[in-house]
Amino acid sequence: MTYQSGQQLNQQIDSILELLNKQEIVQTIFHRQQHTAEKNLLEAMLHKQQAAELEEQVNKLHNADIAHLLEIIPINKRFQLWQVIAADRVTEVFLDANENIQETLLSNLPEGEILKIIQFMDADDLAFITDIIPKHLMEQRLLELSQDDQLWLNHAQSYKEDSVGSLMSNDMFIVKQFEMVKDVSKRIREIKKLPDQSDKLFVVDSRGVLTGVISLEKLLLNNPKKIIKEIMSTNVVHFSANDSASHAAKAFERYDLISAPVINERGKILGRINVEVMMDYLREENTEDVLNMVGLNAEDDLFAPVISTVRSRGLWLGINLFAVFLVSRVIGLFEQTLSEMIYLAVLMPIVAAVGGNIGNQTASLVIRGLTLGQINLQNSIHLAKKEFFVNAINGLILGVVVALFSFVFYQNTALSLVIGIAMLLNLVMAAFIGLSVPLALKYLNYDPAMGSSIITTAAADSMGFLIFLGLASVFLI
Amino acid sequence: MTYQSGQQLNQQIDSILELLNKQEIVQTIFHRQQHTAEKNLLEAMLHKQQAAELEEQVNKLHNADIAHLLEIIPINKRFQLWQVIAADRVTEVFLDANENIQETLLSNLPEGEILKIIQFMDADDLAFITDIIPKHLMEQRLLELSQDDQLWLNHAQSYKEDSVGSLMSNDMFIVKQFEMVKDVSKRIREIKKLPDQSDKLFVVDSRGVLTGVISLEKLLLNNPKKIIKEIMSTNVVHFSANDSASHAAKAFERYDLISAPVINERGKILGRINVEVMMDYLREENTEDVLNMVGLNAEDDLFAPVISTVRSRGLWLGINLFAVFLVSRVIGLFEQTLSEMIYLAVLMPIVAAVGGNIGNQTASLVIRGLTLGQINLQNSIHLAKKEFFVNAINGLILGVVVALFSFVFYQNTALSLVIGIAMLLNLVMAAFIGLSVPLALKYLNYDPAMGSSIITTAAADSMGFLIFLGLASVFLI
To answer: Is the ipTM of this structure higher than 0.90?
Structure first.
């Protein structure tokens, strides 16, 4: 299980995908013909041979790579793949897979298989999946845990999603401040293994209150007879269990943390969070924006079945349609004007579409700024001023170009003036809309990206039609 | 410099922002009135008092927090803030700031100040900023480096942007495989400090070829007389200097790495990359998509001056305008039809706008899938099929709703049929466009997000108008 370079890994994955496809093809061919005992046997043999090859290929991969493979194949093939994973690896592969895969597996595998997955999980890992595991299986597993682990598990579940508490682990190594370096080293040797991603150990006083941290490096660097308190660092980044995970992730990034203690209001250590969990969180948070903007649910599986996808997209499609109906009614207000000057209908999408794009540019900037924590109340006013000037200048330039374009086709100076001015006004207006929509969503405690593209586009389109057709009906008739 | 909770930090930042504002207000008031010696003195005193307060507040913050503060304030205030940062912290704050801030500072600070920033930088950090630092200052600094460091610096610069080589550091601790644990411990104690984020040390044979890694944990766990080779791990995730940073970041995420060796084709160690650099890279890569889609440059500073912003947005605005002109010409083809049935002009944006949104949904899905490495050639065909069915079903539903909407306003059965069918066809077409645009960009070796929203919207809009007006001119006349 040594590491493969990226290219080798891709080749391996491709060959596995091919094997999976072959199996399907064999199945299809045989299903098309009439079944005889002989054919059945032949099919079984072919299958067996390929399953063996598949099994060999798959189990050469790192656990995390198998989990990734599960994510990039359609649902029906996921079970095919799952069956060939070595029994002693199913737990790790399951934990490495994303939530969609975990849910699909749990809701489709027979109980025996699920038990195999959870039978060796510790309290920590169980805490992450309690929501999605069948209740009676979970209860069965809980009985096997120690009293402490059961308590911890109950506690961990009480924190809300996206809080530090929901992401922390109870797997940590605690040091007393008056221990000597050699005592700590001895204790570490006894337990044989430190928690994953341990760069430092947490130091407490006699009441169990966090007083500092000691890095493994310091343990190696110092004389075995040194007292921990003398060499520990008291400059500790720590979190409360109710802190938002997003805040913690920013702190991990900013202060380059590998692990950090989670404490209660009296300073006692509740648990530990590490960079692995934070990196996963960051990745999710960041890639969500792209989907949320256009009204998609970030938790949706790329390979979810058609019907569940149709359903999950329904709400925002409905909102989209409603918004577009409003846009259409705005145009409807000017039916008379349009019928007198049909070229307005040809030109009006120019004003609306560029406005929609400008609105989305500004909205994207604001959403990214909010995600990175670069926008607050004070500087959003500055930002508004800046966007106003940028789009006023761009509006002037584009206004002139559009006026020329329309003059080329219609040789009507008044029309050119009207569309040029409409362009300028609409760009400034669109920037204002793009700035307001995510800030308003944020203010109302929604995700600022949520549907912002749909709302911004519809609003900027309506304004574009209103400004252009409005000016036209006043000045061109 | 102990860590502050998130709320405390925000309060501190707010009070600093207020101080910065006050200074500006004092300046403005005094500048408005006529200058007399007395007033000048008064102004200077007020300034001094506030500068002292500002200095105190700012230097209470963590280096990384000061760097963040620089990012969220307008350019003119950045210099004001820079002046009060303690002299012994400027290098660290500078290194913690993002590239925009670094460039602004380097191109505006007097040479003396720049020298203060770089005088204590090591070869590693210098490598990151060689591109943006004035050449003669860099050469001056280079002369002070050791021969080895100079060589390394030259080497590091030879790797292209976004390669592992460009992100690696030469700060590492190498262990010979036949050393004993106690030898290594002794050597560590001699150098007093390990490189940042050292979870493991790299092990080489007598020719300097990487043969394994030994974690600090193992050093602590094992008997001092053990030979490294016996306890090291040979399952090493390593990279080549020419690997893409994006590939390495995915591996860091997938295999939960803290640090990893970079080797050449013969297995010799060239450098080291760590999770800190990878997290920064991931963050940038992820937040870029949101901006790239709408034709913005992800490297743009939120607070860049108006003119440079106007210029940097110019290209894609031009492309946008050109695309919209094409859309308008598509409508122009049907001027005759429109003049006969003016209600088509009122209804046509419905078909186009919903299509544009659907196209962007699919494009967003594909872009995210590509970023996460979940989409390849094989499964993109599966994905295409799925999106076809999802949008065909949604198209049917929306088609019926739009048909009813148009019937309410125009009581024209044929018109309702035409718009319903146009809706269905355009949704399927838009999904196909949204799928093709990012995949085509990727195939052409561009960033798949680059301008994809602009291209997709324009293409889906044109198709929408073409399909609806086309059907109308055939069946309604």
So the answer is: no
